[in-house]
From TrEMBL:
The keyword Glycosyltransferase applies. The keyword Glycosyltransferase applies. Coiled coil: none annotated. PANTHER family: GLYCOSYLTRANSFERASE, UDP-GLYCOSYLTRANSFERASE 708D1-LIKE. GO terms for molecular function: UDP-glucosyltransferase activity. It comes from the Eukaryota. Keywords: Glycosyltransferase, Transferase. This is Glycosyltransferase. It is an enzyme of class 2 (transferase). PROSITE patterns: UDPGT. Its EC number is 2.4.1.-. Belongs to the UDP-glycosyltransferase family.
């Protein structure tokens, strides 16, 4: 349904993100993009949030874009989740949102003008699409990881019906996926993540289309396999809409000194080190990483994180990395270590940054592609090995395959010497330098006017207006 404003039909779109910045970020970007295309946007703001980064980014969005309307969605208080007490706080919160789904129905009913479409985060899809169906609102899914990961998501429910244990997976139209690359939680059928994964994988079929923050040339095989019916028959169209642009609305996060320091560094000389919004390293690994960065001889900007949830991350930098490293970095001007939120997209877009040691959360990969920054992939869990393999295949960077991930059997702390060597090699690799420049051009072409991602989204908006 669309509303009429003057002569023009205005589409009214509601967006529902899930827990954590890895999920909120693409929704913030999509919301501001839709608003800039003239859509009326209702942004469903989950209350409470897990991290303060989420609250700050939501406030910044609403204060900068008056045309984006907040719809507060207070969650049920759930005590009855004892079975999942040890689960990751973000997955647990996601489960709370899912169990509160029925509360959204009256809130959506009260919206005026009525909605033309409802875009829901993949991790909430199976709980909320039935709600939108009750109101006859067409549902769309925003898949927050790669299209390559989407092939696994779509394929797995069928596979798991026959298999007790997931082994290597051969998805039609795709390169074989070894068991070691599959998100570790999926090897445990009782895991909360696995249950959500399977239910949401089935719900893909109920959407009108699946939107992915990627671009066709980066994942041509996956987009073709998904849209050609090779992965699952009857899958709705998969539309690549990335790289999504960063909204103008941003909390005053990155301390000014980070950018003042970057401004003083030579072009492409700095390696930026960050593992996203929710990956904490052990103290032992933090120490070795510090040793490695110094040994690399390269300039570095390192965002240290020792707790999954930012609200609990109170330890000082001195305790975590040691005063020596901080002082040497300051003294020689070669290294800056920070804690707390930095505006990563802006850091990656800074001319001084030439490399990125990344866990390969999907937003980080797409941001690096759009900024032309090469990646040293060090996946830590979830979808990150799948994304790291894509980084390697696309020429966006290299993957330190031999480095284990969190909790993996036999995984050891990666030694500083090894880290230093890989960082040095990354910055000196001219072959990767050339391929990254090509990927960047393709990214810019896709998201620019007339590009495949731009047109893919424009077609959807047109449909919502009709
Ligand atoms: N970010 C900042 N500053 C920080 C930390 C993070 O701007 O100090 C941003 C970053 O630019 C990115 C987002 O926060 O846009 C983080 O997203 P991502 O890079 O995808 O990492 P995670 O936060 O780890 O994301 C989760 C999962 C990851 C998955 C992703 C999307 O951990 O594996 O790919 O969600 O589903």
């Amino acid at each position: 349904m669309s509303a009429t404003s003057g002569d023009a039909q205005v589409s009214h779109v509601a967006l529902l993100p899930s827990a954590g910045m890895g999920h909120l970020t693409p929704f913030l970007r999509l919301a501001s993009t839709l608003a800039s295309h003239g859509c009326r946007v209702t942004f469903i703001a989950i209350h409470p949030t897990v991290s303060s980064a989420e609250s700050l980014h939501l406030s910044a969005l609403f204060s900068t874009y008056p045309q984006i309307h907040p719809l507060e969605f207070p969650l049920l208080h759930l005590d009855a989740m004892d079975a999942y007490k040890l689960a990751d706080p973000f997955y647990l919160h996601c489960e709370s949102i899912r169990r509160s789904a029925h509360l959204l129905l009256p809130l959506l009913t009260s919206l005026s003008p009525p909605l033309s479409s409802f875009i829901v985060d993949i991790s909430l899809a199976s709980a909320f699409i039935p709600i939108a169906n009750k109101l006859d609102i067409p549902s769309y899914i925003l898949f927050t990881s790669s299209a390559t990961m989407l092939t696994l998501f779509a394929y797995l429910p069928g596979l798991i019906a026959d298999a007790k244990r997931i082994d290597d997976v051969a998805i039609p139209g795709m390169q074989p996926l070894p068991a070691s690359m599959i998100p570790p939680a999926l090897h445990d059928p009782t895991n909360l993540f696995t249950k959500q994964f399977i239910e949401n994988g089935r719900a893909l079929l109920q959407a009108k289309a699946i939107l992915v923050n990627t671009f066709e040339s980066l994942e041509a095989d996956a987009v073709a396999a998904l849209n050609g019916g090779a992965v699952v028959r009857g899958l709705p169209p998969v539309v690549a809409i990335g790289p999504l642009h960063q909204p103008a609305a941003r909390p005053s996060g990155s301390p000014g000194r980070t950018f003042a320091w970057l401004d003083a560094q030579p072009a492409r000389s700095v390696v930026y080190v960050s593992f996203g919004s929710r990956t904490a390293l052990s103290r032992a690994q933090i120490k070795e990483l510090g040793v490695g960065l110094e040994r690399s001889g390269c300039r570095f900007l390192w965002v240290v994180k020792s707790k999954i949830v930012d609200r609990e991350d109170g330890e000082g930098l001195e305790e975590l990395v040691g005063n020596g490293l901080l002082e040497r970095g300051r003294g020689r001007g070669k290294g800056l270590v920070v804690k707390g939120w930095v505006d990563q997209n802006e850091v990656l877009g800074h001319g001084a940054v030439g490399g990125f040691v990344s866990h390969c959360g999907w937003n980080s990969v797409v941001e690096a592609a759009a900024c032309g920054v090469r990646i040293l992939a060090w996946p830590r869990g979830a979808d990150q090995r799948v994304n790291a393999s894509l980084v390697e295949r696309s020429g966006l960077g290299v993957w330190a395959r031999e480095w284990g991930w969190d909790g993996e059997e036999g995984a050891e702390v990666v030694r500083g010497e090894e880290i230093g060597q890989r960082v040095r090699e990354l910055l000196g690799d001219t072959h990767v330098g050339e391929s990254v420049a090509r990927v960047r051009e393709e990214a810019l072409r896709a998201s620019g006017v007339g590009g495949s991602s731009y047109e893919g989204l424009a077609d959807l908006i047109e449909k919502w207006r009709a």
